[in-house]
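Q: Make up one entry.
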Amino acid sequence: MGARRYEPDDGRFLQQDFLRNAGEELELSTDAANENRYGFAGGNPGAFVEGDGHAVVPDGGGGGTLRSLICRTRTLAQREKCAFGFFVRRGLSRAQAAGCVGNLRVESGYPCKGVDPKCWQCSDHSWHNSNCGVGIAQWTYYTRKERLLAFAGGSQARALTLRVQLGFVWRELKTGKGPYNPRAYIHLKRVHGANRAAVYRATDVFMYEYENPGVLHQRERRQAAWNVFRRYGRR
């Protein structure tokens, strides 16, 4: 982003932000806050940040760079790579990150696309009851869905984006507010190693202590995590 004149009283720039291929990469067509080329942080810089001027991201903290939240998400491979990079940039080991992503792939898999932020696994697309899971972690309890929505600034469009949902997973892990076991992050960080056994241990920690799914699908989660590690975690 080049220099542009900014009007702080209105929370907007006086010149447009010019960005090539923005619609494809940042899903601007579904997010009015990003689509406005004169805006900044969705007009709410107290709750959101724009690290590169091209995307509104909740200021959730936790380290890493905002660019780790901005990546292509069209294919499953792109979403997996984006999620893996997100967790590694926030300090997880490659095995720990793979364990997280493997779980998210299975959790939002069939009939959805895997690591799928727009995944609703029933027809009741309600944020305010506990009848239906949504997103990459299939948040089902209404309290968690409402917190996700609040994390997205109240915007359902933002709440259904990968970058926001990854940020929310990280917020839940770090704060312990949401996971089945509030100490899930601590136990995940205790997984050491860079081999299949370490990936499996990280997968199990995330599965049992963050997700606690009704149906485990442990074998599928472990295999998905190992595939992620082989693709993106090998140096």
In short: The first strand starts at residue 6 and ends at 7. The two ends are 32 Å apart (CA to CA). Residues 41 and 70 are 15 Å apart (CA to CA).
